[in-house]
Amino acid sequence: MTDEHLMMLVADGNTGKLxxxxxxxxxxxxxxxxxxxxxxxxxGDLVQLVFEKVLKGKHTYRQQYNFLGWIFRIAKNVLMDHxxxxxxxAEINDEVxxxxxxxxxxxxxxxxxxxxxGHLDExxxxxxxxxxxxxxxxxxxxxxxxxxxxxxxTRVHRAIKQLKENYLKVINHDKGK
Length: 177
Description:
By secondary structure, the protein is mostly helical. Helices cover 74% and strands 0% of the residues. The chain has two domains: 1-103, Rna Polymerase Sigma Factor, Chain: A, CATH 1.10.1740.10; 107-177, Winged helix-like DNA-binding domain superfamily/Winged helix DNA-binding domain (Arc Repressor Mutant, subunit A, Orthogonal Bundle). The chain has eight helices and no strands. The chain starts with a helix and ends with a helix.
């Protein structure tokens, strides 16, 4: 049974089918949030919020929508809401602790590419996560982030360029130790 068909059943009141959708997509959403926030607990909470919003907004789903694109749009909105809600707290923490990337971070378990990804601008990190890790098509990513397909291709190209620059900085830094 397709995701779209399952979601239509949920929209028609068979909310038990949401569990199947959760099982199919929670890991992908968790991975997206983890790569964006670097916080395991927050990522789990955000996944739960996405599925709460899916349940509350089940009546807004239309079968012609690609389910994965639709749920990732919800995920992006949940993430943006989180950032808006916690922006003031983050600004205070930055003033007290310094900028997060300026701090000595524990990279002992991170690969060089993960460190380089962590230093990407958020808009670039997001398109790489969606296209390379979550394997969404450019058209789906365009719908999620509100750009044209060409705009997504351009952003991916720039993201890869910035990632390469960051990666070279990381490995050159490692060699200097």
